[in-house]
Design goal:
heterodimer; A: alpha/beta; Rossmann fold; 2 domains; 6-stranded parallel beta sheet; 6-stranded mixed beta sheet; 11 helices; 12 strands; about 45% helix; globular; B: mainly alpha; ABC transporter involved in vitamin B12 uptake, BtuC; 17 helices
Amino acid sequence: MKKQLAVMFVLILGLFLVACGNEGGTTSTSDGEQASIGMVTDLGSVNDKSFNQSAWEGLQKLKEDHGYDVKYLEPQSDAEVEPSLLQFVNNKTDLTWATAATLEDAVKNIAETNPDAKLGIVDSALEGVANVVSVSFKENEGAFLAGVVAGTMTESDKVGFVGGMEIPVIQRFHAGFAAGVKAVNPDAEVLVNYVGAFNRVDMGKSAAATMYDAGVDIIFHASGGTGNGIFNEAQERFNAGKQVWVIGVDKDQSLEFGNDITLTSMMKYVDQAVYDISHEALTGQFPGGEVVRLGLNENGVGLADTSDINVSQEVLSKVEEYKEEIINGNIEVPETP
Amino acid sequence: MNAVAKHMKNRNILVPILATIIALVFGAIIMLIAGYNPVIAYQSLLNKVFGSAYDIGEVIRAIIPLLLSGFAVALANKAGLLNIGVDGQITIGAVASLLVGTLVDFPPIIHGFTALTVGVIAGGLWGVLIAYLKTRFTINEVISSIMLNYVALYLSHMLIRGIVPQEGSQRSALIQDSASISLNSLSELLNGARVHWGLFITPLIIFGFYYFFNKTRYGYETEVVGLNNHAAHYAGIKVNRIITRTMFISGAIGGLIGVFDTLGVYKYMAISTSTSGVGFDGVAIALLGGNTTIGTTLSGVLIGVLKYGSQGMQFGAGVPSEIIGMIISLIIFFVAAPGLVKKLLPNMEHTKKEVQ
């Protein structure tokens, strides 16, 4: 009996010894004067294969290139968002990113009560807060090009759009996509479903199933992690011998989900934006109070480089024409559907 | 250890404590295997919880809903009811207080108090609905309460979008300042931590729970129904009335959680895709605490500290929040499987006799 207890004690003791032994080696707590950047995700995770991951990749690249100290926190509930941001702010992190529009209220609060802290927010047009830089993308321009591809390549004249939440950012995707489809194929019908969540793979899957069953052959999604369910559904149908397509979003999702089902991806270069603005901020040119707007012209959005695998050259040159028109201002892409 | 065992007169207290320790050790082993430093991790957990005035205030903010949820579940458990619908009662309480907080014009404090009362009653009535389904149609409360969670969730979406929407976002409009139940001066003292009336009301609820079951006839009746409702019926206790009453109080406590979040923490209500999950944490907390006043209080505090501190672990030692989720699950696992833990205990009892 005492033996069992003794064994437990030894176990615990040994554990702590081992742990203490590690202390000096692997985890060095002294980051010294190294500039530091923090990032708070929305309720998704940094592995969402979408915007959170893209932002995190931008930060990791900064670490590689410039040796900055980068960290992320994933709040598990709405209530944890402010404490997470404050964790960075109170630790004198040089720049703290919030990766999604849903964090806007929290960012504004923290920025106003901590005027010395520097914060950044992606997908928001938070203006006039001197210590916050907002990055806003002209998703409608990129989505227009995705719409051109979908409108040209659809065989059923039915395409679908799945949105995460019905908020301005996602409505820009929707509006641009619908406009692009109409521009090349006025007869095509665009089915729309806002599932109401960015982290519900199951809802993405059922939304996709409903659309494909209704005869849609190409779905464009702007729904973060929810979109993984759409790819999932498409893959199942592909395996069953039926060709359906998904147009990915934010990142080149063909790298993740393969070329069997990924037609193309509308890139939103969150990683590049986070990279550039962070570097500017840490080298003394923090664009605080500004909204940085990135469109086709600024190379903030576009189609993935791997598009030519499934999209023919003719379609791509058509895309190129429309791109020129948009940059020249001959075509004005709507922001709301 | 023997001395400790001697002082622990009640094995029931020893089991959860041991379960917690074993789970923390297991958590450390998992962290070691995954290549993280458990000492730094646990240190940063404590540092996150007690490190600053703000954190102390925020950990209280995090603990309050867990405590209340634990007691809401424990109360129903005492009457032999498994209320896993606390999430729905939270949602209903939140949306009711939101509507009163935004639409009505009252002077400060009175406004907050009115909104709070309405939210609490709404949560209670949502609980009564479950009791009604059970007593009138003998629908098992486990099924009805979990399904009503969804009804509550989507009802809240409808009410927020239809009555108090905020354009271009996934949340309601803000409540009026007069309906706020924040403790502003204390909050300033704690560097902006979101503390609210719950700081005073929660201890009252805990004391009320203790008083109800230890000093009143009503509490005794409730426990009798929980032990054997046929016997209770035979003894002349009106079982259905007690089920209804218990579910009202349980739901009201649930409603209170929603009220605190809406009027005290966020000042708005988000259109979220799922309910908060706090109600399910409450089931675990009540289980861990064995439905007792002290046990439920301690386990609520423990789970709250772990949940809030997990951010510190992520920050300080790079440990993913999934690991702390595993530790919490392990604690519950070891408590729910007392056989594993009790294997150690009989030995201790022998020791106790030897010592004496």
